[in-house]
Amino acid sequence: MKKPIHILVITLLLFSCKEKGKLIDSNPQENYPDKSEIEKTHHITSLNKENTNGFSIIIHGGAGTILRKNMSSEKEAAYKATLEEAIRVGYNILKNGGSSLDAVQKTINVMEDSPLFNAGKGAVFTNAGTNEHDASIMDGKTLNAGASAGTTIVKNPINLARTVMDRSPHVMLSGNGANSFAKEQGLQIVEPDYFYTEKRYKSLEKIKETETSQLDHDNKVAAFYDEDIKNSKFGTVGCAALDKNGNLAAGTSTGGMTNKRWGRIGDSPIIGAGTYANNNTCAVSSTGWGEYFIRAMVAHDISALMAYKNVSLQEAAKDVIQNKLSNLGGTGGVVAIDKNGNMVAEFNTAGMYRATMNAKGELAIGIYKD
User: Which candidate in 236, 275, 281, 331 is catalytic?
Assistant: First the structure.
């Protein structure tokens, strides 16, 4: 009886090995999840982890030496009214389930269409007496981004930045090429004199007369001159938003600096300096002396501190603006929002035009530091 039992055992072992061999030698795709399915599952998990269906939006209209003593009650009311108009546009988009990208773009459109801010209609003049616009936008979900620099005929530069992101393989277009792309894509084109405002042109003339844009006490190129707030206004506009799906976005638009030369480009169209968004951390829009924001990569640095050091948005923004930027000699600020909807407006100047709204519809508008 022993021999038949041995034969039976050996047969069973061989059959078992054969079946295992079939599994090892078979097509790996039959045994492991499809890569797209893995990514899909991971994506859903990462989105749902922080998604509480809350939403928030924060905007800025520039930072600088904005003092009550230099601001009339009528002008203050005008700024507050436009800030409220702009942020409510984005708020309503978010409230109705719209994307943070759409909220950022449409909110900035309102400020670009206002002569109060140094963006779009209210853009400052270059040394040549022209208006050159820069803008950028970034999607925190995909890290996709778009930007344009030095455009002269595009009514709403933030729309061009969004179109570069959505309809081109590039991140940034500039000058005549960007103008041509805008025409091809059917964006609204205007004559250059659309951007003319008497106030901005007088600021240019004043600078040329006094040469305040040429040298400051450190023999560096001065940044801005604005007759309303005495030589230190940084009039960029920007927005950061979190939508109900947990997606962050940020955008920035500017006319640059008064009396700028040689096709100067500041931080506003540069991803990581003027604009940055990442669903894992935060969305940031900057305003200030662009050269310093570029050197410090301010917007990305705030996100990096949150990611690498696990600090809060408030801590990261404070460290970058009050320490790193200030130590370089830079001035300005940021508005930012994190993946949980916490918002921060951090600046090292006397004031910054700003506003916030949360999912409860609570509105806060600020201009001065106090």
Answer: 236
